[in-house]
Design goal:
This protein is of the alpha/beta class. The protein folds into 2 domains: about 10-100 and about 115-245, Aspartate Aminotransferase, domain 2, CATH 3.40.640; about 245-369, Aspartate Aminotransferase, domain 1. It contains 12 helices and 14 strands. The strands form 4 sheets. The chain has a 7-stranded mixed beta sheet, with helices on both faces. A 3-stranded antiparallel beta sheet has the order 7-6-12, with no helix packed on it. Bound molecules: pyridoxal-5'-phosphate. Pyridoxal-5'-phosphate binds near residues 59, 88, 89, 131 and 157. Pyridoxal-5'-phosphate binds next to α3 and α4.
């Protein structure tokens, strides 16, 4: 049987009764859209983070889009982010009419190199949008300082960092707003699409509720800028409520898998994830690096192990973003990484004996290169 890079079926087997009970709870509640489950999840997710407000939305991309719109980011504005991210980060910036501006990433953590941000600020810069990639947090302290000095907004992309902390602070609790995805693979994953925005700003909260609901405050009446239909689904919200109670357990499970990889692959020449000081990594993706990545992946094919590359193409090199004007070589660390990184199977229910097969396959392949 193929070992998948991510597999929810084991989790489903373990949690089946609770998941099906969540579905039954909603189906028999008499309210299928924006009911008690969305409200309950929003309260509980905000409370978990100690945040003022949570607004449930339909996916993580729209969480970023609505977060930006709720703070007034739009056409003519520049948003500073990274190209080493999932394309949706940048798609969301583009979708509000703003211009993404990229800085390179740190060669050790693969996260935004915050030292490069000051150099790309212009009078049009409106927002800084760090991505807590792979499960560890960007150092937000220098970004907070820049935001204060230049009157900029700070929006965190937390799609890959549920439960992650840096210097004790949970991902999603520092910026003006923070966007989460609950895509099934995520550390807190739904059984379908889902997303949320956290904010402690009352103005953004008010705008978010309106924007996800066509632009309406009252039913059938649009006020201000027309919005979208971007509601978090009631069934997914109820599942997420149940799973939120287990989030710390999922994180512990991921850390145990990471530790086993560390022990099993320490002396192989593979570059394993490096955790920056102060970070409590949640290992959404277990990203490793090797200069002969393609040969390693090719050789691993025969072992029936699925691997992934997050991400094979830096966003600034995609034809869909050619209009931004970046040339090959403009973000050298990001570009080099894209040719060298790949990710190993990682999910909390990954059984140790299955993981050991992955470790021994990788060891075999590296020894034979
Ligand atoms: C860093 C990052 N940002 C944004 C998103 C978008 O989330 P979604 O797929 O729920 O729209 C994802 C996930 O795909 C992501 O990994």
């Amino acid at each position: 049987m193929t070992t998948l890079v991510w597999d929810y079926l084991q989790e489903y087997e373990n949690e089946r009764a609770d998941i099906l009970d969540a579905v039954e709870t909603v189906f028999s509640s008499g309210r299928l859209v924006l009911g008690d489950s969305v409200r309950g999840f929003e309260e509980e997710f905000a409370a978990y983070h100690g945040a003022g407000h949570c607004v449930g939305v339909d996916n993580g991309t729209n969480a970023i889009k609505l977060a930006l719109q709720s703070l007034g980011v739009g056409p003519g504005d520049e948003v500073v982010t990274v190209s080493n991210t999932a394309a949706p980060t940048v798609v969301a910036i583009d979708s509000v009419g703003a211009t993404p501006v990229f800085v390179d990433v740190d060669p050790d953590t693969y996260l935004m190199d915050t030292d490069q941000v000051a150099a790309v600020l212009t009078p049009r810069t409106r927002c800084l949008l760090p991505v807590h990639l792979y499960g560890q947090c960007v150092d937000l302290a220098p970004l907070e300082r820049l935001a204060a000095e230049h009157d900029l907004l700070l929006v965190e992309d937390c799609a890959q960092a549920h439960g992650a902390r840096r210097d004790g602070r949970l991902a999603g609790t520092t910026g003006d707003a923070a966007a989460f995805s609950f895509y099934p693979t995520k550390v807190l994953g739904a059984y379908g699409d889902g997303g949320a925005v956290l904010t402690s700003r009352d103005d953004a909260h008010h705008a978010l509720r309106r924007l996800r609901y066509y632009g309406m405050e009252e039913r059938y009446y649009v006020v201000g800028t027309p919005g979208h239909n971007s509601r978090l689904d009631e069934v997914q919200a109820e599942i997420l409520r149940r799973k939120l109670r287990r989030l710390d357990g999922y994180v512990a499970g991921r850390r145990a898998v990471a530790r086993r990889y560390e022990e099993g692959l320490a002396d192989t020449g593979l570059v394993l994830p490096r955790t920056a000081a102060g970070n409590e990594h949640v290992y959404y993706v277990y990203t490793v690096r090797h200069p002969r990545r393609d040969a390693v992946i090719e050789a691993l094919r025969t072992y029936d192990i699925e691997l992934n590359i997050s991400y094979p193409w830096p966003v600034h090199t995609m034809t869909g973003f050619a209009h931004l004007g970046y040339r090959p070589g403009s973000l050298p660390v990001t570009e080099e990484l894209a040719g060298q990184i790949f990710s190993l199977p990682m999910y909390p229910a990954l059984a140790p004996d299955v993981q050991d097969k992955v470790i021994s396959a990788v060891r075999d392949v590296l020894a034979g290169l």
